[in-house]
Specification:
five-stranded antiparallel beta sheet, Immunoglobulin-like, 3 helices, 3 domains
Amino acid sequence: MKQHVIQSTRIIILALILAFLGCSEEEGATAMESNTTPPGAVSNVTIENLPGKVKLDYTLPNDKDLLYIVARYTLENGTAMEVKSSYYQNTMMLEGFTGLSEQEVAIYAVNRSETQSEPVKVTVSPLEAPIFEVFRSIELNADFGGVRINAQNPTQEDIALLAMQKNIQGNWEPLPTSIYTSASEIAQSLRGFDTIPQDFAFLVRDRWLNVTDTLFTQIKPLYETLMPRENMLPVTLDNDAELIASHTEVRDLFNGGTLEWYDTYFTSRTVDTEDHLVTFDIGTVTKLSRLHIWQFSEPIGDQRLYYYLGAMKTFKVWGANELNNGDLSGWTLLGEFDVKKPSGLPYGQEDNNDLVAAKDGADYEISIDNPAVRYLRIQCMENWAGGDYMAVSEVQVYGNPDF
């Protein structure tokens, strides 16, 4: 009985100690979260001016309840900016500048009670933003049905190269075919325009809505036409791929059928060659603009899969004006293409975005810098099943035979 009383007393004392400690910690936490005394300011601020941005390094104040450092500044276009960095770091990157003027930055230390220090103000002089270098590099040339745009984006910034035309009210407005990219080299054609002189305007914008000056030009798009399929003929060279069976032949590539298996060109799945090639004559020497290709869609249940089996995933197009035994050293590489599956779903799974992108075929542009050719070869490098055989329903060839 006495031992039981002693144990009970110990339990009560331990509970009181824990309660006291809990209250102390709670009071300490409350005090920490209610600290209205401003923390010390950052010191030893160094500035590294970069294209369109600034890197700041600094020494943190010695405050136990320091939470973060914040820099506030205003862009040249009037946008208020705020960048935060935790107390684990002593550096931060400020972005969005045009680099055309000096800007003031206010730096604050903030504690856990969101109490700010006195600001440390510095003046930064960022270098010219990348959009201006992109703008100066723009080259514009007439292309088939439109305009060819070339530009350099060496820092691979996210930019919008806006192509504009006047609307019916006479105001310039961006075209839906404007270019949004972070590629280091921009080489793209905007097509679908009549072959009469067209007024265009171009500018470059970044993600902070900084813009360059505007480049105005007049372009007369080049004429293009669909090469008549009745003039196209099969050609067989020594290293062309073996066909899958007697029911398929090269002329199935341009017989007008885009859906059924009996209108499709198949190469043999059992022949293991380095690459599968098919050759055909387009009828006359032509300056090519594009190939419009329908991949075969495999019927699976009540749906058709377009990114499946022998449908081409990566392929090349070659051209020539004279035939040889098939040695590619005698042919000009007109283009190398990667087919993108919009949904990104695993192999064998496709959604409506994939259907919309594939059911009407797709354009594969040929650079205007390439020579005019009469004979074409399509070389399947890899299909969606991971092999090299191909299943192509139809090929249409566009260009200008009188170029």
